[in-house]
Amino acid sequence: MAVTAVHQFAQCITCHVWSPDQSMVALCPNNNEVHIYRLVEDKWEKVYVLQKHDQVISGIDWSARSNRIVTASHDRNSYVWNLEGSEWVPTLVILRLNRAALCVQWSPKENKFAVGSGAKTVCICYYEQENNWWVSKLIRKRHDSSVTSVSWHPNNILLATTSTDGKCRVFSTFIKGVDAKDANKGTSSDWKFGELIVQLDLSSSWTFGVKWSPSGNTLAYVGHNSMIYFVDDVGPSPLAQNVVFRDLPLRDVLFVSEKTVIGVGFDCNPMVFAADERGIWSFVRYLGERKAVSSGSRYGSQFSEAFGKFYGQSKHGVTNDTIETSRTRGAVHENCINCIMPLGDRGTSIRRFSTSGLDGRIVLWNLENEQDLLGLVPLDAPKSHDSQLFFAILKFPSSSIWILFGYCIICTLYTDCAWKMKMLSTLQTPRSLSRLSFIPSNVFTSHTFASQTFISRASLTDQSVTTIVAPPQSQILSIRHSLLSRHVTAADLARSYLTRLRLSEPQLRSFLHLPDDDAVLAQARHLDAKISAGEELGPLAGVLVAVKDNICTADMPSTAGSRILEGYRPPFDATAVKRVKELGGIVVGKTNLDEFGMGSTTEASAFQVTANPWDVSRVPGGSSGGSAAAVSARQCVVSLGSDTGGSVRQPASFCGVVGLKPTYGRVSRFGLMAYASSLDAIGCFGSSVADTGILLHSIAGHDRFDATSSKQDVSNFLSHFVPVSSLESKPLKGLRVGLIRETIDNGVDAGVISAIRAAALHFEELGCSVNEVSLPSFSLGLPAYYILAVSESSSNLSRYDGIRYGNQVHADELDSLYGGSRAKGFGSEVKMRILMGTYALSAGYYDAYYKRAQQVRTIIRNSFKEALNQNDILISPAAPSAAYKIGEKKNDPLAMYAGDIMTVNVNLAGLPALVLPCGFVEGGPAGLPVGLQLIGAAFDEEQLLRVGHIFEQTLENCRFVPPIVADDIVY
């Protein structure tokens, strides 16, 4: 029993299948293509790419005798591919579906294939010789939800299906003229097409991966509740067993013999199940290497630790600080295994098989000796009698099934109480999506954290000349210099930041998801190894980067701050995240936000409210409040956020950090969960203009996965980040600065106006000419923005229906499922904006609201263009006030919306804007920062960064470090 080979083909594999002679493998890399590889001299070479589908391919099968490939896709179509000469020629199969096709499989005789779909329908497709085309015959109104898997019985007639309604069903697919009629009475050919033979109501959750045994006498499938089901005597009175295991759910199974099954799934390690001489099934062992001791959470079921692992296991969900991180999971795969396929002769016994998963790997396995396999003692399971207590033999009407099942569970808990109490004692409180216990603030006065040395900085309130320490020009550049000069290792630096993060996080609650510390340190040690080997480092090497939780990350959940996506883990990294990682950045966690970016405080997050580092009783702004707070509190070096109407710039102002919204199209939106697609932009946070500019330079540029991504060249911003000592006395001489008159009127706090006017005077000291400029359309921006944004959100958020991903509410009718899932999953702010958007787009109001708002948007864009023809940059406050108290505006949404007046116009015009702190107003323990907004021409971020850097470096007697940061990390 061994892994014979591990091959990395892609970032993610949706499904794979082998050619009849196993010389080629076809796989789908989570897109609309099929890649076919051939083994040439011990190396896999891509020989074909099948391109015909418009959306992600969800199923693929390769017939063993006729050498045909069939594919199914979310575009609701299927193709049969025939190899003609050196090309694969597709033939379209019209499925007549109104939902995505989800799975496909050839029948044993290869004269039919079955397609399961999200339309609660199964398509049985066969070739009609007379008309020379493929015909689809539908099994309708038998499923209550999406069909997740199909499996053919060896007799070529019976078809088993699983569904997200929790049921497994067996149908007859007999088609006259296609299938031969059996002369014997009472055989499967006597059943009519679509006739339901049996419906198994064994699972309370989604079911997957149905398979028949080689003889067809046993049926196996899995549930999302960490159970596997075995059914004998499939018919009106089946004999069923279910085995509960203490691990993450499975996704697929394979019979390697009549009495042995391999299961694969979220735990990344194949599991072996076998039946004894009495026919009783039980868990035998893990097929891979030894696994770590399982860990649970208070969410765990009383009879399964699997749900605890979902919430508590750091490498497979959200972080749990109490998990023993020194022990690895010990699996060959690094992410969910979603496909298992046999290799070699598909007889009564299989010795070789392959697995593929979301890590992009295909692993080949060889079962050298089945007796040795079954003879091994399970590594992490209780003793044999324990596992046998976890099944129920069911041969009763469905109404009695749950009574007996519940009785078996109660008996198990009672008869094995000591072992159960030991298991329950390991349950831990989940690390994210909850508020941690409060740590007294005096811990921040210590000068050593976990044996890490720090240098104390002067208090923010102490502004005497002798105690002012000039801020470093760039933390990123300082880190790079220290790493290359070997003054500090990347691991030590990461450990210092993680220590600070862990200490300050209970007060701030900046993060929704934090990876395991060992995972972060492993990346840092990898960088140290590259330095020791003399390899070239990327510009973000060793830099800890936080990412807003509406930006997709494959190795951490991405929830957009919403219950409807709770626990959702994307199969890919957003382009911005991918570029950060490629350049050496280390993603330290996912930050809190208002749900789907709809808010200005983070109070609209479904999970927690983030506090402002300057005063924990105040909001950090939003919707990127977590990203801004993390940078302000020095929990990370830089962070990524998103800006639809000011969601980067307003939090930057409230938290006293630098925030940059780039020109629309400058940074790819691929992987950003859409709020309003024509307004959304991924932005950057840093504690200095230089850091923010370096991060932007790292993620900017054209991306073929984003049709709105610009091909405009990205300038080298780094040349402008020079020390203040090298600047001239009037470094900005000749620069024309326009102060927008409408932003310093009676609706803005007096302290904010005072700080902005002081900033204007500072620009004059630097050699600029500053004049007030009027934008008459400025006041129209807010109503136009909210009409356009909510209209687009109404459309964008329609994809969250509880079917394709996200939490699902069980319902008998499809409309009830949609409505229930959305009602339970979305928060009140999101629901309100969806309703507003739907209203604005309705037939009677489209012209009156949406179309008119588009006209106003054009007027605003032209106003900015004219103003920027007369000025090099425009300036304004970033917000009409400093940070306000948590809860102060929660019940007054109009007042909160009015706070966006300074920022929304820039999004409507698609322009870049930079916010940097310029002063303080009274409030909090050490004053509250005020942000200055610099607005530039399209794709002229270089000018904004140059001006912002000089302004920042020459601003005297202002240190924008909150009181919560008592010490600085030594580089």
UniProtKB/TrEMBL annotation:
<dbReference type="GO" id="GO:0070681">
    <property type="term" value="P:glutaminyl-tRNAGln biosynthesis via transamidation"/>
</dbReference>
<keyword id="KW-0677">Repeat</keyword>
<feature type="active site" description="Acyl-ester intermediate">
    <location>
        <position position="647"/>
    </location>
</feature>
<dbReference type="InterPro" id="IPR036322">
    <property type="entry name" value="WD40_repeat_dom_sf"/>
</dbReference>
<dbReference type="Pfam" id="PF01425">
    <property type="entry name" value="Amidase"/>
</dbReference>
<feature type="repeat" description="WD">
    <location>
        <begin position="140"/>
        <end position="172"/>
    </location>
</feature>
<comment type="subunit">
    <text>Subunit of the heterotrimeric GatCAB amidotransferase (AdT) complex, composed of A, B and C subunits.</text>
</comment>
<keyword id="KW-0067">ATP-binding</keyword>
<comment type="similarity">
    <text>Belongs to the WD repeat ARPC1 family.</text>
</comment>
<dbReference type="GO" id="GO:0009570">
    <property type="term" value="C:chloroplast stroma"/>
</dbReference>
<keyword id="KW-0547">Nucleotide-binding</keyword>
<comment type="function">
    <text>Functions as a component of the Arp2/3 complex which is involved in regulation of actin polymerization and together with an activating nucleation-promoting factor (NPF) mediates the formation of branched actin networks. Arp2/3 complex plays a critical role in the control of cell morphogenesis via the modulation of cell polarity development.</text>
</comment>
<keyword id="KW-0436">Ligase</keyword>
<dbReference type="GO" id="GO:0005739">
    <property type="term" value="C:mitochondrion"/>
</dbReference>
<dbReference type="InterPro" id="IPR024977">
    <property type="entry name" value="Apc4-like_WD40_dom"/>
</dbReference>
<keyword id="KW-0934">Plastid</keyword>
<dbReference type="Pfam" id="PF12894">
    <property type="entry name" value="ANAPC4_WD40"/>
</dbReference>
<keyword id="KW-0496">Mitochondrion</keyword>
<feature type="repeat" description="WD">
    <location>
        <begin position="50"/>
        <end position="91"/>
    </location>
</feature>
<dbReference type="InterPro" id="IPR001680">
    <property type="entry name" value="WD40_rpt"/>
</dbReference>
<dbReference type="GO" id="GO:0005885">
    <property type="term" value="C:Arp2/3 protein complex"/>
</dbReference>
<feature type="active site" description="Charge relay system">
    <location>
        <position position="623"/>
    </location>
</feature>
<feature type="domain" description="Anaphase-promoting complex subunit 4-like WD40">
    <location>
        <begin position="18"/>
        <end position="106"/>
    </location>
</feature>
<comment type="function">
    <text>Allows the formation of correctly charged Gln-tRNA(Gln) through the transamidation of misacylated Glu-tRNA(Gln) in chloroplasts and mitochondria. The reaction takes place in the presence of glutamine and ATP through an activated gamma-phospho-Glu-tRNA(Gln).</text>
</comment>
<keyword id="KW-0853">WD repeat</keyword>
<dbReference type="GO" id="GO:0016811">
    <property type="term" value="F:hydrolase activity, acting on carbon-nitrogen (but not peptide) bonds, in linear amides"/>
</dbReference>
<feature type="active site" description="Charge relay system">
    <location>
        <position position="548"/>
    </location>
</feature>
<dbReference type="InterPro" id="IPR023631">
    <property type="entry name" value="Amidase_dom"/>
</dbReference>
<dbReference type="InterPro" id="IPR019775">
    <property type="entry name" value="WD40_repeat_CS"/>
</dbReference>
<dbReference type="GO" id="GO:0030956">
    <property type="term" value="C:glutamyl-tRNA(Gln) amidotransferase complex"/>
</dbReference>
<dbReference type="InterPro" id="IPR015943">
    <property type="entry name" value="WD40/YVTN_repeat-like_dom_sf"/>
</dbReference>
<dbReference type="GO" id="GO:0032543">
    <property type="term" value="P:mitochondrial translation"/>
</dbReference>
<dbReference type="Pfam" id="PF00400">
    <property type="entry name" value="WD40"/>
</dbReference>
<keyword id="KW-0206">Cytoskeleton</keyword>
<keyword id="KW-0150">Chloroplast</keyword>
<dbReference type="GO" id="GO:0007015">
    <property type="term" value="P:actin filament organization"/>
</dbReference>
<dbReference type="GO" id="GO:0005524">
    <property type="term" value="F:ATP binding"/>
</dbReference>
<dbReference type="GO" id="GO:0050567">
    <property type="term" value="F:glutaminyl-tRNA synthase (glutamine-hydrolyzing) activity"/>
</dbReference>
<keyword id="KW-0648">Protein biosynthesis</keyword>
<dbReference type="InterPro" id="IPR004412">
    <property type="entry name" value="GatA"/>
</dbReference>
<dbReference type="InterPro" id="IPR000120">
    <property type="entry name" value="Amidase"/>
</dbReference>
<dbReference type="InterPro" id="IPR020556">
    <property type="entry name" value="Amidase_CS"/>
</dbReference>
